[in-house]
Known about the structure:
This protein has 22 helices and 27 strands. It is an alpha/beta fold. The protein has 4 domains: 2-55, 2-Layer Sandwich (Phosphorylase Kinase, domain 1); 64-126 and 347-505, 3-Layer(aba) Sandwich (Rossmann fold); 142-332 and 517-539, Dimethylsulfoxide Reductase, domain 2 (3-Layer(aba) Sandwich), CATH 3.40.228.10; 556-666, Barwin-like endoglucanases (Beta Barrel). It has a 6-stranded mixed sheet, with helices on one face. A 6-stranded mixed β-barrel has the order 22-26-23-25-24-27. Helix 5 (141-151) packs parallel to helix 13, helix 8 crosses helix 12 and helix 8 (221-234) runs parallel beside helix 13 (303-317). It is globular, with a radius of gyration of 24 Å.
Amino acid sequence: MTQHASSCPLDCPDACGLEVTVEHDRVVRIEGDRRGPLTDGFICGKVRKFADHMYGDDRLTQPLVRTGPKNGPPRWRTVTWDEALALVADRIGGIVARAGGEAVLPYHYGGSNGWITDGGCASRFFRRLGASRLQLTFCAAATSAAQRGLYGAMPGVALEDFAHAKLIVLWGVNPSATSIHLVPIIDRARAAGAKLVVVDPRATPLARHADLHLPVRPGADLPIALAIGHALIERGAIDRAFIETHVADFTEYARRAARWSLDAAAREAGVARADLEAFVELYAATSPAVIRTGWGMERNRNGGGSIAAVLALPAIAGKFGVRGGGYTMSNSDARWAVGAEAGIGAPEAATRLVNMSEIGVQLRDLRDPRIECLFVYNCNPVATAPDQRLLVEQLARDDRFVVVHEQVMTDTAALADVVLPATTFLEHRELHRGYGTMRMFDRPAVVAPYGEARTNTELFGALLARMGLAQPDDATTDQAIVDRIFAASPRGEALRGQLDAHGIAAPPDGANRVPFVDVFPSTPDRKIHLVPAALDAEAGELYAYRPDPATDAFPLALISPALATQISSTFGQLREAPAAIELAIADADARGIADGDDVRVWNAHGEVHCVAKREAHVRPGVCVLHKGFWRKHTANGFTANALIPPGLADLGGQGAFNDARVQVAKR
């Protein structure tokens, strides 16, 4: 029995350090370590039980090739890796020779991956192939556009510095499910006298004990944020000296914010006007004040403008310049001075861009050339992409070659022509950094790959060689990729030294830096731009509000937040409980629905059959069907993804998942 230092790369801001116990080359226990500032010796239940994922019945251990048509029950033939690679290379080579590289589309997502497994040989292969490029829009597309438009690549308040705040605002984020190490920090701040405000359609665990909860109607965060900004300006509760020195476009922002009074915003968002007044008074009077913005409010038609309007508040109110004051969105831009590109070693091809949130429509409609091969890795689109019914139909076509590199037999893998077994994060090396805590880990493998699972480096390195795309100076191993990444930066040697000594590193300029003391916007003039011209052009008009799409036929706003037991769809194979739609008690009563009733949830785009759960913590007019369920969790094999309408948010090509409006009835 041996113990190994490791780290968790899964899609969570906390980036925990791990202590992994291995016996006979199997992981038998996973606990948190104390190397980083957040982990503090404890981890979430998801990762603590990760061995169940590694060694469960659904784990893929050998390459599989489909036998028979896709419209029947899956039937597989076990093959060797050499046979599988030969088949994949031959089919892709034939497609490229006939239709060109753009007939191939890599479909992937890097939320739970670092610079080796979501860059490296995989990106090199598809770039040199001349494949279509994937626009990553499931999460953080609108938020990243807004944050970088206003502030550039400026990191926000370090999560551990929330302990210094006297007012903490959680806006569209539920740390109890998605960032558990922030919760004790908030608790310590509150014990020292800090106030807590939560803006969320649900009464999340922290909202139930907050000083103020604003149960905003989904998509109406924009008028709320603008009305608060307008009220601060009207009352003189702004920092004019800070604005004069550090803020651009204030006059135009103020003009647009003035469209929303507290009364009008309260009506549109379905919250009490008195609660908005209380928020304004708290925010105006309190320092340090920090706003933790999440990714929930970007997932609608107004997502980018909403984020921009929230991020404008600390700028006009002068909340920066003190430890614990300002905002935190993503801290992935924490001035690392290194990045994935050097490890890829191939320039990005100027090929067409395909929005991953429109994959079903693109597979159906895209021409010149059509997508003949979909190569899926680090992702499970059947469980995560919109328009699920159309996507399943398109993947099931016999004239489309689908390859899936995956750890377990997902809903997407079940529709593939070739399934290739992939390693889990404890079976391969990874270089990754947090997007909440500002720390980087260089994590070695702690056990050998299970069965015949192979890493992304091994898979795509082999395809590069087989298809004649390899070059003599390529970095072909994980070590070589890491060496290239650090060699490309003048600060790489210092980072490398930290990682070699401790397995963890802080940014070269240090972590826990105070915005507008130690770090400033990376915009050309180092100012905050409240109405950036590029965002204004992309949105049509930044901060313009698009009203709620509810109709008499489909009056309920369906939202799909994260499950506390999963990372998006990861670990869904381990879940036995059926999917349940959570309904406000008043909405359930109006439909004669009791707990546990079989119900249908439908709109013009699809239908889901599941069970009902009456929930006091959901506001009337809203229902919750969590993201991450698999097809086996519903009675008709479709999940919330089947109900998402076409259309995108105002910035970044972001998928507008929470714009689904539905009706619910007993079956």
